Amino acid sequence: WPQVAVLAAYLAAGLAFLVRGARALDALALGEDAAAALGVAVERAGPRVFLAASLVAAASVAAAGLVGFV
């Protein structure tokens, strides 16, 4: 169970950041120009969302192991 606690901590941190940045992520889905017009700091939002999504994916793969798709 200690591994589950570590996984939960990483997932909670990454998911909390992604939920907090959901507005910026939705605006970025419209394109960089539209997001900038809506007041999103595109230069900062993109890398932050990328890092948070990478953290969630890395924690999931570390816990579950590699899954092979054929």
Structure report:
With 70 residues, this protein is mostly helical. The protein has four helices and no strands. It has helices at residues 2-20, 22-29, 32-37, 42-64. Helix 1 runs antiparallel to helix 4 (42-64). The protein is elongated. The chain starts with a helix and ends in a 6-residue tail after the last helix. The mean pLDDT is 86.
Counted beta strands? 0
Helix and strand run: HHHH
Averaged pLDDT: 86
Largest sheet at a glance?
Answer: none
Distance between the termini: 31 Å
Name the poorly predicted regions. Answer: none
Strand residue content: under 5%
Q: What form results from the Cα inertia axes?
A: elongated
Secondary-structure content class:
mainly alpha
Rg computed from alpha carbons, rounded to a whole number of angstroms: 15 Å
Produce the secondary structure layout.
Layout: H1 2-20, H2 22-29, H3 32-37, H4 42-64
Helix pairs in contact: 1-4
